[in-house]
Amino acid sequence: PGGGGGGGGSGLWGPPPMPSGGGAQFPAAVESLLDGPFDGGGGWLLPPPPPPPPLSGTVLLRYPQCDFEIFPEQDLAPLTAQEVHSKCITISQAENPSFIPLATSSLISRHANSSSVNVTPLQEMLTLPSQISNVNTESSGVLQGLPTSSIVLDRPADDGYNWRKYGQKAVKGGEYPKSYYKCTHLNCLVRKNVEHSADGRIVQIIYRGQHTHERPSKRRFKDCGGLPDDLDDFSGNMGTSVRTQSDYEDYCRKPILPNGTMVGPLVEKMEDGDDQLSGSSDNQEERDDEVRIDDGSAGDVNERNVPAPG
DNA sequence: AGCCTTTGACCAGCG
DNA sequence: TCGCTGGTCAAAGGC
């Protein structure tokens, strides 16, 4: 028994807490992608299907801290960070002049200074579970990375809820250690399975169940160094969908390796709808944190919409 | 003191 | 029934 690591669960994930921040609504393009993809009824969703028709073109996902676009794959390869940055900014501003590029600009540009960066993440876009919060049935979700690249969460459990790790197993021949988390809330039965590769990169996150309580945002914020109460207002203003957005943004910020490595595609699967990925308001903090990273850390999140079968 | 992680053991489902 | 695999339990220990 190793013990240790306790008290907030930061030990395993090393890097300091990464707050979230901001608040922005999803563009119509994103909403359209979210409207139907998820199974709100019951069964687990099937593995990520081929990119839906909308992805064949250009879809802008606009997040407070992660502004990116689904680029045609052929366009991705030659892209440098600077190019991606430029492209993101251009598009985002074109779509919405008031949009303020956050992580994308700060992080990518930072990398652009040193060399070209791996922009592969842009090939895959993580699904936005936002609208999914409308589904009230038991739910679970999956964040699944591709074999060639994956994401690393500084704290996989840090999605706004409080989790307690209750087990870990080496599955798939020991190639992928899998961690099991429970929501620490009294009557909440939500569980989360985090599967990561040998190098510590998270390749899959599976949520099961639905939280029966509100997200303990303030506590999390406090842990992260404090966050304005405005975020609660934000949550309240945005309603349930916002919760998903914020939670989602948690993931958006997390694909930043401690050493600054940019990580790869992230695919999300949802089961039974999802309240799990919903969150209230890490936006502001996230924004701050993104700016705070200056030791080479950079994050790129690919967000792919994973339509539910049918 | 409380909460958390770690980790071996236990249990259930499946071929 | 047996073995494998995956999920969970619970004791030990750290913060």
From TrEMBL:
Query: What's a single GO MF annotation on this record?
Result: metal ion binding
In which broad location class does this protein mainly occur, judging by the first location in its UniProt entry?
A: nucleus
What ranges does the record list as Gly residues composition bias?
A: 1-12
| Record carries keyword Transcription regulation | yes
Region described as Disordered: 1-27, 262-306
Q: Mind listing the UniProt keywords for this protein, alphabetically?
A: DNA-binding, Metal-binding, Nucleus, Repeat, Transcription, Transcription regulation, Zinc
Keyword Metal-binding assigned to the entry: answer is yes
Report domain WRKY positions: 158-216
Q: Taxonomically, which superkingdom?
A: Eukaryota
What does the UniProt entry say about where the protein is found? Nucleus
| Any one GO CC term of the record | nucleus
Sequence intervals crossing the membrane: none
**Annotated family:** Belongs to the WRKY group I family.
This chain belongs to the protein called WRKY domain-containing protein
Give the organism, scientific name: Oryza meyeriana var. granulata
Which residues of the entire protein appear here: the answer is 8 to 317 of 425
